[in-house]
Amino acid sequence: MKLTHSRFASLLALSATGALLCLLATGCSSKTETPKEAAKEAAPPPAATPAPIATEEKKEAPKAEAKKQEPAAKPADANTYKVKFTTTKGVFIVEVHRDWAPIGAERFEQLVKDGYYDNSGFFRVVPNFVIQFGLAADPKMTKKWDKKIKDDAVKRTNKLGYLVFATAGPNTRTTQLFINMRSNQFLDDQGFAPFAEVVDGMKVVESIYSGHGEKPDQSMIEKRGTPYLKENFPKLDFITKATIL
Description:
The chain is of the alpha+beta class. It has six helices and eight strands.
């Protein structure tokens, strides 16, 4: 199921405080981070042995040039990975935390590796609330990944710049995502579990065109893909490429 414009309008009417309910979602399960092992103290070198007295003069062998010690490579953190989004407004980077929402983090990784988000549009932009995307440029790709995944437990609050899977109810996450454009803590109780955060390029995110609002029809995007968006919403911004760093 996808959250449609009509569903969002219904949810909006239910919130007297203006707390908009929309297609948003992400889950999370915690993972204990293994502390780094303390460096072991180096053993002292053995005492030097006195050199024998030379009976005849010998030429001193040239000293071998000391090799420069290369700094040890920093071990990769298996718990996190970063994704670079190149868009029509510039580049922003998100950092994914597997322990926040392991199921969502794994699905997102699979989608990026398959090129799912390439050339797709930011089809729903609500200022001071969310920016939503995640319907593929090619309808065949959208259909390919229309596979629901189970929810993750909500372990992080919906802060500004946090990335979350959209949902139409329990255990309905597929491909759609949104970026929180403010603190949306009221979404925590609705099961929307962040799994990543924008760590670079938030100004790019904030500059994404919002003039079309929620006008793009999600069912038409599913049927026709990016051509529908470009024909009807010429100022819409797009993701040109999403890459795992």
